[in-house]
Amino acid sequence: MPPRDLQTDRPHSARIYDYLLGGKDNFEADRRAAEEMLQHTPRLAVSMNANRRFMVKAVRHLAERGIRQFLDVGTGLPTRPNLHEVVQGVAPEAAVVYVDNDPLVLAHARALLTPVGTGTVAYLDADLREPDSILRADAVTEGFDLSRPVAVSLIAVLQHVIDDELARDIITRLMAPLPAGSALAISAVTVENDPAGVGTVRTYNQNGVPVVARTRAMVEALFAGFELIEPGVVPVHHWRPVAEDRTVDDADVYMYGGVALK
Fold it and tell me: Is the pTM of this model over 0.85?
């Protein structure tokens, strides 16, 4: 039985995403909003799948570079492969902390996201807009060795932080206590490739889910002070592309992505 405080009469970004990827953890309000978005961008699921592959590529690359601690903020509903499955597949001892503030996400995470290696998987009910509370939580202070690098992933979540200054402040506060060698992975919504995507952004906002689309320059600015890993900020299917990425049309991808080191 789902948690009581779900607000099922209002769309939620994680559940819209779930519906568009063919999942079953969504409600009528989410489905209505998603179908309206598909009228503007019929191949929106292509972009969402490309974004999922970006997460996989980014965290695998960071695990292969030796990072063993991953803080995933704005987790969303479980969709395989999940972040811990990727990183613990590379490094079984890796520790992962998932952070979200949606009760449905957390209920499913606790039920479904179990370690695949010898490392740990923890779940934290916290808000992206309160980074200090995330870093002070036991899941982080006891689950991580904060003298060693941590990879922070903000995948398809910062579009819900409308104000650029606030978004940069969140990143600064999340990353400031972490040691050199830590990493930051971001993907963020754009409509630079196809102005029709403005309709999808408008639908999110009209349904009470704040979303802003950013240009490449605006996404690059989120990485200010960090060293971007090649190829920098690019459409997510162009970031170290795998076979599935090479069949994707640029016009169908509405996300920029990048990974950087501290």
Answer: yes
